Amino acid sequence: MNLKSELKKIMENDYRVPEHYNYMLISELMLENIGSADSELRDTLIYSTFSRWILQNTFTPVQLRTLLYSAWDEQHMFYKIGETGTDSVFTRSFSVLLLPLILTANRTSSFLTTTEIKTIQEKLVQFLNDEKDYRGYVAGKGWAHAVAHAADAIEEISQQVLSTDDMIALLVSIRNVLCTKATVFTNMEEERLTSAVVTLVEYQELEGAVFEEWLTGFLQWVRTKELQEEYKIISNVKNFLAALYFRLEVRSSPIFAEAVRRVRQELMKPYV
Fold first, then answer.
1. What's the rounded Cα separation, in Å, for the pair 201 and 150?
2. Three-state DSSP state, 85
């Protein structure tokens, strides 16, 4: 089967497949190619097809669980994790992007167990802690966006049942990513992470004290005299806190917004 040409036909047929085709067989082929460096195949065809099929209840709960277990395994979400600048990021990033689709489906049919929700949460924390390829758009190959895709998954899992410890672990993993000296994020990653945090705060009714303790952690990194390196963290955190402040203020969360304002002001004191 020429997967690309077959998926084009399926897309043109409103994502319906011929009677003699098997959805799961095609899905297995899509998983095998989910990290293709061909952005049309990876993004326009494979991801879009998974999105339509998952959100339109094409798969049974058993089949969705099979997809989930493949998505988070060592050949997909954790494939060569830690590498930077290689095409392996596409496999990891687009495998992560299957999680919010499956979690969205779970909100309507509740087929995932409490243990599986917990495992997804743990996998996302591990992913954000271990992923080191922070590229957004890759010339000639399209979007990598591993951080943004993980943020989408966190936003969706935030609408499931989580413990306080689960919430804190997710928030800390977000903070760890933003407090990096490896890059300055320039592809709206801070907005996607903001969406994840706001959803977590609202759906989980996070306690103010827990939120403030997490926020103050943004002020606690080991400073050096290499200002160009320090500015990477400062820029990432400053932009994120600004986005978070305005989003919380608009959504009538003045106490949380004020806490963000204070931390951002403290962050900027030595530099203004």
1. 17
2. coil
Q: Is residue 242 over pLDDT 80?
A: yes
Mind listing the pLDDT tens digit for each residue in 138-161? 999 999 999 999 999 999 999 999
Tokens 């590498």 correspond to: 83
Encoding tokens for residue 143?
A: 């979007």
Radius of gyration of the chain (CA): 20
Rounded-to-5 percentages of helix, strand, coil across the chain: 65, 0, 30
Query: Of 66, 200, 181, 61, which is closest to residue 124 (Cα–Cα)?
Result: 200
Distances, alpha carbon 210 to alpha carbons 104, 206, 207, 214, 247, in Å? 27, 7, 5, 6, 19
Contacts of 110 (CB under 8 A, 6+ apart): none
DSSP character string of 246-261: HHHHHTT-HHHHHHHH
Res 272 pLDDT > 70 = no
**For residue 64, what pLDDT is reported?**
97
Q: Which residue type occupies 5? A: S
- Side chain identity at 183, as an amino acid letter? T
Tokens 């400062």 sit at which residue? 234
Instruction: Give me 238's structure tokens.
Output: 């400053």
Q: Are 194 and 248 in contact (CB under 8 A)?
A: no
∠ CA(248), CA(250), CA(256), 5° rounding?
Answer: 25
